[in-house]
Amino acid sequence: MTDPTTTLSRNPLDLDESRTFLDANELVINMGPQHPATHGVLRVILKLDGEKVLGTECVIGYLHRGVEKIAENRTYTMFNPYVDRMDYVAAVSNALGYCEAVEKLLNVEAPPRARYIRSILTELNRIASHQLWLGTHALDIGAMTPLFYTFRDREEILKIFEKYCGARLTTHAFRIGGCQYETYDGFEKDVLNFLQFVAPKIDEYEELLTTNRIWVERTKNIGVISAKDCIALGVTGPVLRASGVKWDLRKAQPYAAYKDFDFEIPIGQNGDTYDRYIVRMAEMRQSLRIIRQAVDAIPEGPIMAKVPKVIKPAVGEIYHSIEAPKGELGYFIVSDGSTQPYRVRVRPPSFVNLQALDLMVRGALVADVIAVIGTLDIVLGEVDR
Amino acid sequence: MSEETKTPPPPEGGAQPAAPKPAAPAPAAPPKPAAPAKPAGPVPLPWDSPLVAKYKRQFGSGLEAQSYLGQNYFTVDSSLIPNFLLLLRDDEGFDYCVDITAVHYPKREKQFDLVWILYSHGKNERIRVKTQIAETDTPPSSVAIWPTANWLEREVFDMFGIRFEGHPDMKRILLPDGWKGYPLRKDYGIIQQDTEWVQINLGIESGQ
Amino acid sequence: MLSYLQSYLGGDALTPGQAGNQLWALIYILVIFAGVSVVVMAMNWIERKALAHMQVRLGPMRVGPHGLLQPIADALKLMLKEDIIPARADSFVFWIAPLIGLLSAFTVYIVIPFGPTQAVTDMNIGILFMLGVSSLSVLGVVMAGWASNSNYPLIGALRSSAQMVSYEVAMGLAVVSAVLMTSVGGIGMYDVAGDGIGTLSMIGIVQAQQAQHVWFLFKFFPLGLIAFFIFAVAMIAETNRAPFDLPEAESELTAGFHTEYSGLRWSLFMLAEYAAMVAVSSIAVTLWLGGWLRPFPNALAGPTWDFIFSLFPGLTFLALGAIGMFGFVRMPAHPFFRVQKLGLGGFAAVLALIGVLLLAIPFAARGHEGTILAGFAAGLSAVYWFIAKVAVFMYLYIWYRATFPRYRFDQLMSVGWKVLLPIALAVLIATAAVGVLIPVIQVWFKGRAG
Question: What residue of C is the nearest CA neighbor of A372?
Fold first, then answer.
């Protein structure tokens, strides 16, 4: 493999204040941390020539809450709700990754029924996350209406969450060793109804955007990133798949109940914003497929494995990762044999994916920066932790 | 070691079952039903494979290979670091650096464990590389090997104060530039803060 | 005094400006200014409601029944807000910029013909005046962006000036092809080729459409249609509305050129924007959709048809009143809604009353041709049809905004220069050629026949 760094050289921005911006050839513009299109408190410093982007620098950390430090001062169980607050639009995925990582460290496995429930909820959450992404991404590009359509439909998912565990956003749905709650009466019917409800809605989003001339012009060949660069930069999730790499942890290293399901990994060819849009739309449909299979085949049985009341894993360390809606979400947990983790490292997909922003927008226009930030699907809660 | 994995095609992860390839031999971890979570717990086992044998020959005692709960990792001497990682990338196809992080053991002489989590798209295999460094050490940066290491190393610096030699832009990433202290070190308290910075920059007495 | 007031009403087919009647001109100006301001406020409410319903939400619901008083509440809020001028801004330019935008938007209304005599004045260069003055609004935008001394407004202002200048060209060419049509007859229509002299006067253009028995939209099919389409696209770009709202692209430039503005000054920009929207829609209606002419003024001529069409204003208001009543009936009978319900009922009743009044006028005027009342009824009908046509455009503005993503700046420029401009040129040349050829052919055919 050739050295990928040659294509990725960074030149830090020159923020010399002594030049007034009108005398200089380069215009330095500060986008964020309070900006309508940075999806939270992301601050991007753009170096512009007219409207052309010469370079960017991301300034992050405005939402840093020290999640990893908190983990070291909480027991394994107490830390569980905190992970929901990282990628707060996909809280269920976060919880799944954490619970499975601790289970792996304890060397126990959640019972099959729990794993099915986990898969259903996680896939529902993936749809919700993608819907939120689509709405905000389209809003960034100027199409207002999809935002409201997606929020209307996301509401149905949140209703299911609320009925299942009482919370809508930060669900705290899973526990170490399985699930706290058995499904409520009519859960399966609700989920199946939702599947029927949302399938035509996804077509509706596509009707608004997929062939819309302005949408295509705004997204085709924008923010192109090659498969090689994606891997070198550690980019995962739909962004990687849109560049043509057929890699999805649900298939590559199945967790929960994913090895029981039959589904495709949608991939793109060009690695541009449009392909990422198409990939995510296709992923929503695949999620529907997975949920249907899971609901049909959900086994009976216990929902909690035998886990000690006080969780005290043996000395050792473990890395476990899942395919969150944004990419590979990993947990590296070091245990010193006590009730509190010695170290919890979260491998956040948004954080790593955001690193590709600079490469993707060099030479593009300001409007493309917005489109690319949107297409990376970052959540600042997860970037900053 | 198979040389054809040097330039792996995009993996067709969807088509094949996820069983580890022969290169990663079936881990000798205790079978799961037999090992409920008893306090003694599982222990690291030696990890044997052609890959390990090859590098053992090359690097000798500077390198140890173990496996814990089915996850394989190398523990290497810090002097091997840039070369060994480069070999893993170029010869073994570990083209994707998942994460770089550190663990702080204040009581040890070499206080920090530096951990690289690597993944090979070609082999669908995940390994970890660990090394121990002292507080004053400046390990070489791996940005030239995996560009993704850029922010990951910056975060390690931000949280642990480990400076990477040869990093293009070694500065804090999550915390403000002028912040004093490295929060993820064990001697940094959970409610500790850089009071001076908070008072000057936020204009408040305390962030707590 | 009374006779002086009536001096214009009974007069000939002249606008007050032409008649030199300054009092009536002043009254017209006041009426137009108040009317446009009211329309802008109404437009504010309608846009929010229509957009909301397209986007499966309710829009304003709290202030007044169905949010009817929301624009008033907003206006009050904006007036009471602190007036901020950034410390490093050029305060004089900052202060004058919204005024320039507002002035240029409102000055245009001088020549807009709401009816055959219902305009402040009729200039023989009316359309040129209109294009010229409305282009001045870019000055306000650029000044606002410059004076703010901030990066986002500056980029917004630069975008705006480039955009408005480039779309002005295509717009102008489309207008010229419509002006050409005033001078030439159409196939199978009257032989009005006559002297072959066209007109730039707004009233003259509408009268030409009446004389030629065709809206210019359908003249030289499809040339008129294409020219109209170019104008319709260019006018959205000209008024900086979605999908061409780059100067104030919210997601990119926070609020573009008016990022630093607040309170009343900001509302002046909004007022200017909506006033400009109405103004350019009026140009489009005047040039291509027959201005104040009711549908089929020639095919369905005669006093009876005139009478039937003059019932429309009243019927429209009655229909609006009925919708209001429907909402009144549907509102829950809970005491919580009592005030709102009464308000909505009262509003519907007022609308219905206006409708009845408007219906009464044509009835009263029937059979009294030549009186002031009949003139008033005819004028009312003309103004109604003009406003109805403009309203269609205003609705389209809202519809576009709900449907389209935003163009990128370079794409916008390339659409303007590479697509609209060549087509506009081609249409202009084709219109001129067809206009010259048709009389020649007609003469040739007559010669053969004779």
Answer: C252
pLDDT tens figures, C336-373: 888 888 888 888 999 999 999 888 888 887 777 767 77
Contact assignment for A332 to B14 by CB distance below 8 Å: no
Which residue did the predictor score with more confidence, C167 or C447? C167
Instruction: Name the A residues in 54-83 with CB < 8 Å from any C CB.
Output: none
Residue A224's pLDDT band (boundaries 50, 70, 90)? confident
User: Across the interface, which of C401, C405, C409 has its CB nearest the CB of A214?
Assistant: C405
Contact flag A142-C243 (C-beta cutoff 8 Å) = yes
Residue contact A36–C250, C-beta within 8 A: yes
For chain C, the chains sharing at least 3 beta-carbon pairs closer than 8 angstroms are A
Domain assignment present for C346 = no
**Minimal C-alpha gap between C63 and chain A (Å):** 22
C/B touch flag: 3 or more CB pairs below 8 Å: no
- Go through C39-63 and write b for each residue having 16 or more CB atoms within 10 A of its CB, e for each that does not: bbbebbbbbbbbbbebbeeebbeeb
- Subunits that touch chain B (at least 3 Cβ pairs < 8 angstroms)? A
Return the ∠ at Cα B193 (arms to B189 and B194), rounded to 5°: 135
Q: Which phi and psi angles does B175 have, rounded to 5°?
A: -90, 160
C11 — pLDDT class (breaks 50, 70, 90): low
- Cross-chain Cβ contact A218/C250 below 8 Å: no
Q: What is the ipTM of this complex?
A: 0.82
Is B69–A4 a contact, with Cβ atoms under 8 angstroms apart?
no
Higher pLDDT, C296 or C354: C354
For residue A74, which of A90, A63, A85 has the smallest C-alpha distance?
A: A85
Q: In sequence order, what DSSP letters do the residues of A321-334 get, joined into one string?
A: EEEETTEEEEEEEE
Residue A37 identity (one-letter amino acid): A
Question: What percent of the residues of chain C are helix, what percent strand, and what percent coil, each to the nearest 5?
Answer: 70, 0, 30
Instruction: Identify whether C364 is part of a domain.
Output: no
How many structural domains comprise chain C? 1
User: So what's the pLDDT on residue C193?
Assistant: 44
Segments forming the whole domain that contains residue C246: 17-293+383-449
Strands (E), C212-317: none
Q: Give B10's DSSP letter.
A: P
Q: Which residue on chain A is closest to B30 by alpha carbon?
A: A107
Residues B92-106 have a mean pLDDT of 88
What is the distance, to the nearest Å, from the Cα of residue B60 to the centroid of all Cα atoms in its chain? 21
Domains assigned to chain A: 4-59 (no CATH), 67-384 (1.10.645.10)
Q: Give percent above pLDDT 70 in chain C.
A: 91
User: Which chains have 3+ CB pairs within 8 A of A?
Assistant: B, C
Q: Do A367 and C409 touch (CB under 8 A)?
A: yes
pLDDT tens figures, B151-200: 899 899 988 888 888 888 888 888 888 888 888 888 888 888 888 888 88
pLDDT at C5 exceeding the cut of 70: no
Mean pLDDT value of segment C55-79:
86
The predicted model gives A19-43 an average pLDDT of: 71
**Closest Cβ–Cβ partner in B42, B103, B148 for A352:** B148
DSSP state of C237: H
Assigned token pair, C282: 């009026």
Inter-residue contact C263 to C156 (CB < 8 Å): no
First and final C-alpha spacing in chain C: 61
Q: Are C254 and A35 a contacting pair at CB < 8 A?
A: yes
Contact yes or no for B124 and A253 at CB 8 A: yes
Whole-number pLDDT of residue C358: 86
- Grade residue C249 by pLDDT with cuts at 50, 70 and 90: low
pLDDT of amino acid C192: 44
| Cβ distance of A148 and C57 shorter than 8 Å | yes
Q: A 319-378 residues with CB below 8 A of C?
A: 365-368, 370
Residue C184 placed within a domain: yes
